[in-house]
Amino acid sequence: MPSGFLLGSSKLSLLLSSLLLSAHPSLAQQTNVARILIYSATADFRHDSIPTAVDALMKLGPHSNIAFDHTEDKTWFNDDTLAQYDALLFLSNTGEVLDDAGKTALRNYLDLGGNFVAVHAASDALRNTTWYQEEVGAAFDYHPEITNANVDVVGPPHPSTAGLMNVWPVRDEMYNFKSDPRAIGAVVVLSADESNPGPRKYDQGTPHPTAWYQEHGAGIDENGTAGRSFYTSLGHLNETWKDSLFLGHVMGGITWTLQSNTTGAFNASARVGNGVPTSNGTNSSSTASHSGTGTSSPR
Ligand SMILES: *[C@@H]1O[C@H](CO)[C@@H](O)[C@H](O)[C@H]1NC(C)=O
Ligand SMILES: *[C@@H]1O[C@H](CO)[C@@H](O)[C@H](O)[C@H]1NC(C)=O
Ligand SMILES: *[C@@H]1O[C@H](CO)[C@@H](O)[C@H](O)[C@H]1NC(C)=O
Ligand SMILES: *[C@@H]1O[C@H](CO)[C@@H](O)[C@H](O)[C@H]1NC(C)=O
Ligand SMILES: *[C@@H]1O[C@H](CO)[C@@H](O)[C@H](O)[C@H]1NC(C)=O
Ligand SMILES: *[C@@H]1O[C@H](CO)[C@@H](O)[C@H](O)[C@H]1NC(C)=O
Ligand SMILES: *[C@@H]1O[C@H](CO)[C@@H](O)[C@H](O)[C@H]1NC(C)=O
């Protein structure tokens, strides 16, 4: 399904969803499908690889029992809409991509056990929002010119690196960060091994953090229930999103993140996830948001 179909055609997708559900009523019982919202709004630099990335993820979802929705509409960041999702995936966002109401809804979602995935420039979004940067793991500082580099698999075995060779040659931007994600509990799984690293203005730790996971996302408030978080700084080029090694890396990170047991896809008592709206599902924007694939319905 082309992602453009999901953008702003809520009535059409709702209609299609109803048709699919009535033609295949058994789909409504499929409550273990994980629902993920891809958010790719940008307020500064916009990567032209975003549509390629969305298409790739949408195509891979069913193989991992994941139904992706996609939006760039910040009004989807309200409690009812977010509560349906097992994870949010921030894709190459830049700058101030949420208003205050949206940031509050995102924080609420994370506090309720929601999971979080961030890719590439998403570490350069919401630059003044400390808890957002902590949920990502670290804030982007800068990158030297795009380069051919080796990326080393480091740390414990992890689904995001299981399909990679120990030294993985990539063509991508090697991000530098304003802090060491390990300082807030992240575990680094990929490390850039550059032949010409740029200057380091901040202490981002050693080895150079390039992708990492957090068993307990650090962005929640003190009384929240932490879901999992995964971040990879790779993903600049269209070509990257057509590379099966990279796609395996991202999907491994996503599927690991979902297994927090804090959301509906893996825990029937969870407070968010698997298409469950917090209220009663009559909200028009929440109805639109869970109609993307017709594989799940509120239970
Ligand atoms: C990347 O893909 C997008 C969408 O297909 C296209 O618009 C864009 O021109 C591509 N960028 C490059 C550098 O080829
Ligand atoms: C972020 O903080 C800086 C420094 O206080 C301020 O100049 C800037 O306007 C803020 N940006 C946003 C989007 O709030
Ligand atoms: C967390 O819980 C404690 C004890 O109930 C309370 O005093 C504190 O205000 C809460 N903090 C937040 C941010 O809600
Ligand atoms: C999630 O639940 C499964 C099955 O009970 C368990 O094996 C796994 O360790 C749990 N994972 C976490 C992160 O609690
Ligand atoms: C399922 O979610 C509930 C509510 O957040 C929580 O109390 C329970 O520990 C979770 N179960 C597992 C296996 O993590
Ligand atoms: C469902 O939500 C609508 C819209 O917020 C509200 O008017 C209605 O009273 C709710 N119904 C129930 C049973 O909670
Ligand atoms: C549904 O959510 C939207 C977006 O937050 C909100 O503007 C609208 O008032 C809500 N509608 C109902 C019936 O709650």
UniProtKB/TrEMBL annotation:
Q: Which InterPro entries match?
A: Class_I_gatase-like (IPR029062), ThuA-like (IPR029010)
Pfam families annotated for this entry? ThuA
Gene3D superfamilies, per database record = 3.40.50.880
**Keywords annotated in UniProt:** Signal
> Where does the ThuA-like domain start and stop, copy by copy?
35-257
Q: Which domain of life is it from?
A: Eukaryota
Q: Does the keyword Signal apply?
A: yes
Signal peptide range: 1-28
Q: Where is this region: Disordered?
A: 269-299
UniProt lists compositionally biased (Low complexity) regions at 273-299
* Listed PANTHER family: GALACTOSE-BINDING DOMAIN-LIKE SUPERFAMILY PROTEIN (PTHR40469:SF2), SECRETED GLYCOSYL HYDROLASE (PTHR40469)
**What name does the UniProt record give this protein?**
ThuA-like domain-containing protein
Supply the source organism for this entry.
Ganoderma sinense ZZ0214-1
Kindly list the organism's lineage.
Eukaryota, Fungi, Dikarya, Basidiomycota, Agaricomycotina
